[in-house]
Design a protein that fits this description.
This protein has helices at residues 5-19, 46-52, 81-87, 92-100, 111-114, 116-119, 133-148, 150-153, 164-172, 176-199, 206-219, 282-300, 310-325, 333-339, and strands at 23-27, 33-35, 38-39, 60-63, 72-76, 104-107, 125-127, 160-161, 224-225, 230-233, 254-259, 261-263, 266-267, 270-275, 365-367, 370-371, 379-382, 385-388, 408-411, 414-419, 422-425. The protein is an alpha+beta fold and 432 residues long. The strands form seven sheets. A six-stranded mixed β-sheet has the order 6-5-4-1-7-8, sandwiched between helices. The two termini are 29 Å apart. The structure holds glycine and manganese (II) ion (2 copies).
């Protein structure tokens, strides 16, 4: 399963429409050092990958719609047999041109020389200041030198504009092929969660569960975890991004698993929480039921035309009402919500866009008080939770929390596709 070259071409055409007489420059993700001379497994920048499907480092992609000959240009590492013996195959200039449909491909070493012909008549440079500061400087220096000669030439980029606001609307609405990739990523994640639940028992260590989950990710052809897997038992479940995963699980614990598979660059992101030995304490049951109710009601608010924040607001209302009924909060729900006095229990948002990035490209707000409306093809997570940390500090005027509630952390997270009629829960195969 893969994204066809024709789709990458369509994506570039959509961006070209937006940049008119400008030139857009995208840089590959930098290599990252793990230690000394060992690098992390390379992962292409998501915008770069979305437009090119090209997964090598030290590359630049350029879109220059106004150029008479080349509208799509790649700069790549040249073939180098000795280097390839050590660190793997490279496409090289000729093969990259053919395989990735570029009008022209140059060796990356020629970037400074060749880029000028694509910039000197562009009205504007579109570029996102990224993680590679030396490349950022190179672009700024190029722009500066073009500006300094502008008055003599009468053409050239008079502005530099970020690419995020152009890329986000494109990436946010998933194509049919992307939805299939997402289905596969979530399907593998689903299988891993179901196995994890079946093998969990008191006495095992969190990492044993993590190992089985990540085994499935790779066994099914995924790249591995989409983010460090969270396997959090007992009080660890109150730490949102707990990743040590080294505690021995005990009878009476809850286990919170937040794990997702990355498949062909697309990501699942699923959380389930369940009792290690199969039955809840009354307090665990009460919190679980409440989080589940909040999640189910929030998912009902994921449908086309509703502003993005609607499902979060719904989850907060349900959680606050439930915490009031349980006596863990006191007062009026309106005031608690307005003053955010629920935040010691629920400190994160109810979801995020999901796709090539786990926290995916996508616009949440279109203005100070205007939220993006959901539309078919959007994929969001819906992930309310309640976290009663052992040392929870209630908000001002709120009651102290009795011991039997402390250490309970519960999150339930599904991956939800917005459809023309409402939504589809892609991760529905993991029981709640
Ligand atoms: N696993 C990261 C998140 O849920 O946002
Ligand atoms: Mn998430
Ligand atoms: Mn998650």
């Amino acid at each position: 399963m893969t994204i066809e070259q024709s789709e990458y071409r369509q994506r570039r055409a959509a961006l070209r429409q937006k940049i008119g007489q400008g030139t857009a420059i995208f840089h590959s993700a930098p290599l990252a050092t793990m230690h000394n001379d060992v690098e992390y497994v390379y992962r292409q920048d998501s915008d770069f990958y979305y437009l090119t499907g090209f997964n090598e480092s030290q590359a630049v992609a350029v879109l220059a719609p106004h150029h008479p000959e080349h509208q799509y240009i790649l700069f790549v590492q040249p073939k180098d047999p000795l280097k390839e013996t050590w660190t793997g195959r490279l496409w090289g200039v000729e093969a990259a041109k053919e395989a990735f449909g570029a009008d022209q491909v140059y060796p990356i070493t020629d970037f400074a020389k060749e880029i000028l012909q694509y910039l000197n008549k562009a009205e504007r440079i579109y570029y996102h200041l990224g993680r590679d500061n030396s490349f950022n400087s190179q672009i700024l220096t190029l722009w500066q030198s073009l500006l300094s000669t502008y008055s003599k030439r009468g053409t050239g980029p008079i502005a530099l504009e970020d690419t995020n606001h152009l890329m986000q609307p494109l990436r946010q609405v998933k194509s049919t092929a992307e939805i299939e990739m997402m289905r596969r990523a979530v399907e593998i994640s689903t299988e891993a969660h179901n196995i994890a639940r079946n093998i969990t028992q008191a006495g095992k260590y969190e990492y044993e569960i993590q190992a089985e989950i990540e085994h499935i990710f790779r066994l099914r052809g995924g790249n591995g975890p989409a983010y460090p897997s969270i396997v959090a038992s007992g009080q660890n479940s109150c730490i949102l991004h707990y990743i040590e995963n080294n505690r021995q699980m005990l009878d009476g614990d809850l286990l919170l698993i937040d794990a997702g598979c990355s498949y062909g660059y697309y990501n699942g992101d699923i959380t389930r929480t369940f009792p290690v030995s199969g039955s809840f304490t009354p307090e665990q049951q009460a919190i679980y039921d409440l989080v589940l109710e909040a999640q189910l009601q929030a998912i009902e608010q994921v449908k086309p035309g509703l502003p993005y924040n609607t499902f979060h607001d719904r989850a907060v209302e349900v959680l606050v009402d439930g915490l009031l009924k349980l006596g863990l909060l006191v007062g009026s729900s309106e005031e608690i919500i307005e003053k955010e006095h629920y935040k010691p229990f629920y400190m994160h948002k109810t979801g995020h866009w999901l796709g090539l990035d786990v926290h995916d490209a996508g616009i949440y707000k279109c203005g100070e008080n205007t939220w993006q409306n959901l539309q078919p093809g959007h994929i969001v997570t819906v992930e309310p939770g309640i976290y009663i940390s052992p040392d929870i500090q209630p908000a001002e005027g709120q009651p102290d929390i009795p011991r039997e509630w402390r250490g309970i952390g519960i999150r339930i997270e599904d991956d939800v596709l917005v459809t023309p009629d409402g939504n589809e829960i892609l991760s529905a195969g993991v029981p709640k």
